[in-house]
Amino acid sequence: xxxxxxxxxxxxxxxxxxxxxxxxxxxxxxxxxxxxxxxxxxxxxxxxxxxxxxxxxxxxxxxxxxxxxxxxxxxxxxxxxxxxxxxxxxxxxxxxxxxxxxxxxxxxxxxxxxxxxxxxxxxxxxxxxxxxxxxxxxxxxxxxxxxxxxxxxxxxxxxxxxxxxxxxxxxxxxxxxxxxxxxxxxxxxxxxxxxxxxxxxxxxxxxxxxxxxxxxxxxxxxxxxxxxxxxxxxxxxxxxxxxxxxxxxxxxxxxxxxxxxxx
Length: 263
Known about the structure:
By secondary structure, the protein is of the alpha+beta class. It contains nine helices and seven strands; from the N terminus they run βββααααβαααββαβα.
């Protein structure tokens, strides 16, 4: 095992010299930490070697290319959090922090980057929003009821929505139109739609929220299709599906403070 503060010189094919000093193990990733620098002459290399050895001996860490996503993976493995707090943290990390910052090297996440990030979510909590108008496409299926069919109308409706959820067409976290909105768009009785929604809720497929739109159950999938992209279905009808112009919804100050505390 090399010890902290050991180093060596390496002659490169170009004739230059690379200085390489071991500086310990990164506690987050388990990777070896090394100070490295390339210079033209052996004399310069020996001077640099002495300086880097001093830095290693003083505990100064070299720049690391560890990504923000790697740090959070490691952090959540060891963090001692109450179950509800852990669930909250995981939600913010998955939905907000990683999509915006996850692929960045941790050492690059500094003041200007965070200022831009916070300005972005103050404008709109939807990270796909660029400030330009776009349509939020819904993948809600057309609800067609076969008159005189073997199943009652509410079962046919529930079956259509159930299939859309199980196939991934309706992604976890996607909001559904209210039964009254669906009634107007699809020409079906409210009672039929209400019965279908109650069955889907009892099966754990959707969550019915008082005073708000129902949502598809499950954690939002980062790989889910963007609502910017029009579904490829030839029979997709934006009016029936409930596609709407995007409206910016600024992230609340309290939520931003929570995200900031996690960061």
